[in-house]
Amino acid sequence: MLFPNPFSMEIRGLESQGDLFDSELLEAASIYQDCDQAERVAISEDGESSGGDPSVDLPSHIGQCVERNDVATILRWFGDRTSPEFKARINARASDRDNAALLHICAEEGNADIARVLLQLGADVDVMDSGGDTPLVRTLQAVAFETCGRLALEWGATTAGRHVVALLEGSESEREVFTATLLRSELGGRRCEVVGHGRSDLNGNTCVADEHLPEKDEYRVTMEHSREELVLSHENLKRRDRTPRDPGYFVEFNEGAMTRREFASNEECQAFVASIAAGDGVARATQA
């Protein structure tokens, strides 16, 4: 499925009217997809730019590391996490791939393992390519929503845009309609904290809203640490996006292998992350 640029003048004009019409959306999508690269860049400048330092280009061989699942080479290229080059490199974009960042490439490849490491290290979940697409939008284009798309939502990605949701809703695919329902909801796919529930043992703990049940505005959730599955009202859920200091888990890279460390509670996870920061200032996931 092809999608229109979320920042194109055509789409912004349609959204300002309050209603989105499928025929007009498809026409706008066709206009954008038929543009050459120079025209796409011009269109994207109509929207807000996001991402790393544009002077830092993502080398082709580093982008290809995602395809090979070679996290060690990527981390070596990033360098010392305390250096000024680190932040620019983690969000660097490849001029030969429509200004795709590493998170975009992860989305294309469905590589959630490297995406987790990048987000844990502070990569921008909403970095944009030349066409204004975020990694979340790329997951929808690459049919990788169930891996990298859901991951992006947990880490606070902005919505994919009403036009994208409208196109998904009009699909003949049950999976795409399900995804549209999730994206249209307030908390679908998000990491949330349970609040005001009758079970006091749930309050303050986190979960992931796996599915939206629109009839009663409820969510089917999985508790983060106990793995208990529940149906909760939206009134008992508050967004609590994953952050590098509050990830809920910790991905480590040691001796050529990535492992995911689980914790009994968020407090235990936060203490672990803080202990690393208080040590040498470099998370184990950056060691190659």
TrEMBL record:
SUPFAM superfamilies: Ankyrin repeat. The keyword Zinc-finger does not apply. ANK repeats lie at residues 98-130. Keywords: ANK repeat. The keyword Metal-binding does not apply. InterPro entries: Ankyrin_rpt, Ankyrin_rpt-contain_sf. This is Uncharacterized protein. It comes from Thalassiosira oceanica (Marine diatom).
